[in-house]
Amino acid sequence: MIKKKISKILVPLDGSKNSQRGLEMAITLARQCGATITGVYSINVQPRSEFRSVAAVTDKMNKEIEKMLSAAKVLAAQNGIVFKEKKMRGDVGYNIVKVAQGKDKFDMIVMGSRGRSAAKEMFFGSVSNYVIHAAKIPVVIVK
Predict the structure, then answer these.
(1) What is the predicted pLDDT for the residue at 57?
(2) Spatial contact of 113 and 20, defined as CB atoms under 8 Å apart
(3) DSSP letter string over the chain?
(4) Domains of the chain: which residue ranges?
């Protein structure tokens, strides 16, 4: 007998194909469990960056993030799933785990195995590996 019900799923998003597959898997799981999804986008902000004060770069990036999160919300709504969004700055892996285990108490994380190469700040290296080892809730990695 299943004792724990899945009601909240966290999905890290970055606009990559694997991130999209992670969202689609989360929607499938959410439909089966009657869960809600929270899409999270974390921007890896370096302590010192040449582009920190360039408003045009920041504005363009914010518009792309909003467009991607909006598309994810539409896809979830088309499948009858409530979708919330969260944007953060800082270390990506740490932020994912922090949100997952924070006040909202997510039941599961569903994420793509690798982000887009043009945006290495999102899932470069082994963010998914970090999340698997640091999270205290189940993590589903989608390839």
Answers:
(1) 64
(2) no
(3) ---S---EEEEE--SSHHHHHHHHHHHHHHHHHT-EEEEEEEE---SS-TTTT-HHHHHHHHHHHHHHHHHHHHHHHHTT--EEEEEEES-HHHHHHHHHTSTT--SEEEEESS--GGGHHHH-SSHHHHHHHH-SS-EEEE-
(4) 41-142
Euclidean distance between CA atoms 82 and 93, whole angstroms: 24
pLDDT of residue 53: 55
Q: What does the block give as tokens for 37?
A: 């999804």
In CATH, the number for domain 41-142 is 3.40.50.620
91 contacts 44 by C-beta, under 8 angstroms:
yes
Q: What is the pLDDT of residues 54-81, one digit of tens each?
A: 566 678 888 999 999 999 999 999 999 9
Q: What angle do CA 110, 106, 120 make, to 5 degrees?
A: 45
Q: What is the pTM of this model?
A: 0.85
Burial (0-12, 13-18, 19+ Cβ within 10 Å), 69: buried
Total residue length of the chain? 143
